[in-house]
Amino acid sequence: MKNNLTKSLHQAFSLDNETALITGGGSGLGFAMAQCLVSCGARVVLIGRNENRLKQSVKKIGKNAVYRVHDITDFEKSEELVESVKKSHKNISILINNAGIHLKKPTIETEVDDFQKVINTHILASHVLVKLVLPDMLKKARGSILFTASMASYIGLPKIVAYSAVKSAFVGMVRSLASEVSSNGIRVNAIAPGWIETPMLNEALSGDDDRKKKIIERTPMKKFGEPMDIGWTAAFLCSPAAKFITGAVIPVDGGAHIGF
Q1: Residue 217 in domain
Q2: Which of 77, 177, 179, 92 is nearest to 136 (CA)?
Q3: Residue 219 covered by a domain
Q4: How many domains does the chain have?
Q5: Catalytic residue positions?
Q6: Which residue of 70, 151, 153, 188 is surrounded by the most CB atoms within 10 Å?
Q7: Full domain range(s) for residue 16
Q8: What digits encode the pLDDT tens for the residues 37-58?
Q9: What is the mean pLDDT of the chain?
């Protein structure tokens, strides 16, 4: 009985024979997701603009990781990217739309060009990649699409109006897309990270002890998260263990979105 349960456990969380395309995969949360998916048996293709960073990340992950240098806002080259990955890996069964940019400015200082750049990077780039991977997923009647949302999808945060807008839009995209394709065997979900200890967060909080204190005080678990907290959640959501989960936005935030 124990051996059967162990076998079932492995199968439930196995990503053997899966190929994941992860944007923004060279660092931070994307890198952690890549590590965890590979640990579960997947092959990963990391997408980013910084080749040196991608090379180092692939080296750390090992033989089941490769990279492609690509700017996701260069929409005209996105099809070439996807075809290249399909040629070398046969299929893309997992798409993780993780790449993004942050913009912190008061609303009255946020120009149209600023806003458009954030929209292009988060919303339009994700949409283009979804359109490109969906035909094969629909043909095979299987696949998993994952978005990286945010606490800004749930709560009001000052001076990030463009970022909040696109992260809130992800929630709508997940629900609409899930309602459209889930009957075809394709699951669509999102992770909404809280404050995770990454170089980006450390830079944002550098010299701002009051803000750091405020974050900890409103987080019921009284600490920051770690990148692997997001990585393992991604691995779970892409695995057979989550086969009945679609259209969900999962907060991984130590309770921050319900904290007082």
Answers
A1: no
A2: 92
A3: no
A4: 1
A5: 163
A6: 188
A7: 12-196+229-251
A8: 999 999 999 999 999 999 999 9
A9: 94
Structural domain contains residue 39: yes
Question: Which among 101, 189, 82, 199 is positioned nearest to 145, based on CA atoms?
Answer: 189
pTM of the model: 0.95
- CATH code of the domain containing 83: 3.40.50.720
Mean pLDDT computed over 228-249: 98
What is the average pLDDT across 203-223? 88
* Residue that wins the pLDDT comparison between 198 and 19: 19
Both tokens of residue 72?
A: 């996701």
Give me the pLDDT at residue 7, please. Answer: 67
Q: What average pLDDT does the segment 221-250 reach? A: 97
pLDDT tens digits for range 59-86: 999 999 999 999 999 999 999 999 999 9
Spatial distance between the Cα atoms of 68 and 259, rounded to a whole number of angstroms: 40
Residue type, 169: A
Three-state secondary structure along the chain? CHHHHHHHHHHHHCCCCCEEEEECCCCHHHHHHHHHHHHCCCEEEEEECCHHHHHHHHHHHCCCEEEEECCCCCHHHHHHHHHHHHHHHCCCCEEEECCCCCCCECHHHCCHHHHHHHHHHHHHHHHHHHHHHHHHHHHHCCEEEEEECCHHHCCCCCCEHHHHHHHHHHHHHHHHHHHHHHHHCEEEEEEEECCECCHHHHHHHCCCHHHHHHHHHHCCCCCCECHHHHHHHHHHHHCHHHCCCCCCEEEECCCHHHCC
Q: Is residue 216 part of a domain?
A: no
250 and 170 in contact (C-beta within 8 Å)?
no
Q: Which of 157, 151, 53, 165 is nearest to 120 (CA)?
A: 165
